[in-house]
Design a protein that fits this description.
The structure is a single chain. The chain is built from 14 helices and no strands. The protein is globular and about 60 Å long. Among the domains are: 2-195, Orthogonal Bundle (Cytochrome Bc1 Complex, Chain D, domain 2), CATH 1.10.760.10; 204-237, no CATH class. The chain is mostly helical. Bound molecules: heme C (HEC) (2 copies). One heme C is lined by residues 80, 82, 85-86, 99-101, 107, 109-112, 114, 117, 120, 123-125, 133, 136-137, 140-141, 148-149, 191, 195. One heme C binds at residues 80, 82, 85-86, 99-101, 107, 109-112, 114, 117, 120, 123-125, 133, 136-137, 140-141, 148-149, 191, 195.
């Protein structure tokens, strides 16, 4: 017990150092700090995230979740933790176009930032059914298509690890008061509680909103005006405290947004996306959902390249070019003019070939 407390204190000091990374345009920066007392220390006017009743926050649980998040022993061959695909230095992404699991499986999609996941109404690039962190955690741990951490069929090994490890044994007892706390459900709950503490709300943009005129450069202010203009419309989908219409928080009365097709692909002339990344249609089997993805946050966007669900867009400049070319599904796009890019690339182009790094 004393060992664990000392280790937790040390880590807490490191984790609470606020990291600020200026983005290319100087618009957004990020900070991730460990909230250990569960009074949410949020800037004025920012609502607290939703927390499920059956998994209340506590200092002990978050510390335990942090440890589990970074523990490579929670993978089939001891090589991969959550933190390897969600690296804090890259705003909890991995810098790869598509994520790679412990046994080399290439995930069809790109690793996502975990900054402000506590505020999301839907998790993942395109799964309308996934709405709770506690439901998401088992996917990378036990999923087989693709294999990420590769723990399918190894539940007993995980249970034996947490019940016998000299740090985990007392830590689970402290975090979960039950008679026998060594359950997979509690592994999941602790990791989810830790994820809810990854809050990013102190960028130069946030400081500008709070009244610091000098926080944004003149160029960033011009970019902001365009971002919030009806001409460019970015804010319709990338609005709110997390720059995503899928944001939800405590006391919210407006329903979170739908999934959207930004016209990244058109492989059949009818707006088709290459399999398996057909967007929400992959889950709903409704052709109207073809190519519809959840709006990703734009926080820390300068450090989360490459972009889009399949990592097929290398730079922010290329993202802007994509939107400048019209974006949107073919039926909603403005009539192309000669000055616009001719059409969207198909799946056989370099976009997908270059995707595995
Ligand atoms: C092999 C790399 C990899 C590992 C390991 C991994 N993830 Fe992920 N993570 C991803 C990818 C890829 C996605 C996008 C999945 C999708 O939508 O298909 C993702 C998405 C997520 C999301 C949704 C974020 C959002 O904005 O909607 C959460 C939350 C998450 N991961 C948490 C975790 C946790 C917790 C662990 C450890 C138990 C973990 N991940 C392990 C690659 C990984
Ligand atoms: C109709 C809704 C909508 C509008 C309008 C919109 N976006 Fe997006 N944006 C999305 C969706 C959905 C994605 C993810 C698409 C994908 O992965 O296929 C996305 C992805 C992005 C990404 C990549 C994020 C990442 O993590 O990979 C950036 C950057 C971005 N948009 C910026 C903008 C800008 C700048 C504008 C205005 C010019 C804009 N968006 C307008 C819905 C929208």
């Amino acid at each position: 017990m004393p060992d664990f407390r000392a280790a937790a204190r040390r880590t807490s000091v490191v984790m609470s150092l606020v990291l600020a990374v200026l983005t290319a345009g100087g618009v957004l920066a990020w900070s991730a700090s460990l909230r250990v007392d569960y009074t949410w220390h949020l800037p004025a006017g920012i609502p607290a995230p939703n927390v499920p009743h059956d998994n209340p926050m506590s200092e002990a649980k978050v510390e335990l979740g942090r440890r589990l998040f970074y523990d490579r022993r929670l993978s089939v061959n001891g090589t991969l933790s959550c933190g390897d695909c969600h690296n804090q230095a890259l705003a909890f992404t991995d810098g790869k176009a598509r994520a790679v699991g412990a046994t080399g499986d290439v995930h069809p999609r790109s690793s996502m930032t975990l900054a402000n996941v506590a505020y999301l109404s839907r998790l993942g690039w395109a799964n309308p059914l996934l709405d709770k962190l506690e439901t998401q955690v088992p996917i990378p741990m036990f999923g087989e298509e693709p294999v990420e951490m590769g723990l399918a069929g190894r539940q007993d090994e995980v249970l034996s690890l947490i019940a016998t490890d000299p740090v985990y044994r007392p830590a689970f007892r402290e975090a979960f008061n039950g008679a026998f706390p060594y359950a997979l459900e509690n592994v999941v709950k602790a990791i989810a509680a830790f994820e809810r503490t990854l809050i990013s709300l102190d960028s130069p943009y946030d400081r500008y909103l709070r009244g610091d005129q000098a926080a944004l450069s003149p160029a960033a202010k011009r970019g902001m005006a365009l971002f919030y203009s009806e001409r460019l419309e970015c804010f319709h989908c990338h609005g709110g405290l997390d720059f995503s219409d899928a944001t939800a928080h405590r006391g919210q009365s407006v329903a979170p947004g739908k999934f959207h097709n930004t016209g990244l692909y058109n492989v059949d002339g009818e707006g088709g996306y290459p399999r398996p990344n057909t967007g929400a249609a992959d889950v709903t089997r409704d052709t109207a959902d073809m190519g519809r993805f959840r709006v990703p946050t734009l926080r820390n966007i300068a450090v989360t390249a490459p972009y889009m669900h399949d990592g097929s867009v290398a730079t922010l400049e290329d993202v802007i070019d994509h939107y400048a070319a019209g974006a949107g599904p073919p039926w909603a796009r403005p009539v192309p003019t000669r000055s616009r890019a001719p059409s969207f690339p198909d799946s056989s182009s370099k976009k997908l070939r270059g995707a595995i790094s």
